[in-house]
Amino acid sequence: MKTKYIVGILLSFLVVSCATVRVQTDYDTKASFSEYKSFGFFKPGIDKVEISDLDKKRILRAIDGTMQSKGFVKSNNPDLLVSIVTKAEKNVNVYQNNIGFGYGWGWYNPFWFGGGFNNFNTIETVEGRLFIDIIDADKKELIWQGVGSAALVNGPEAKEARIQEIVTAILAKYPPEKKQ
Question: Domain residues for 160?
Answer without folding.
Answer: 19-90+125-171
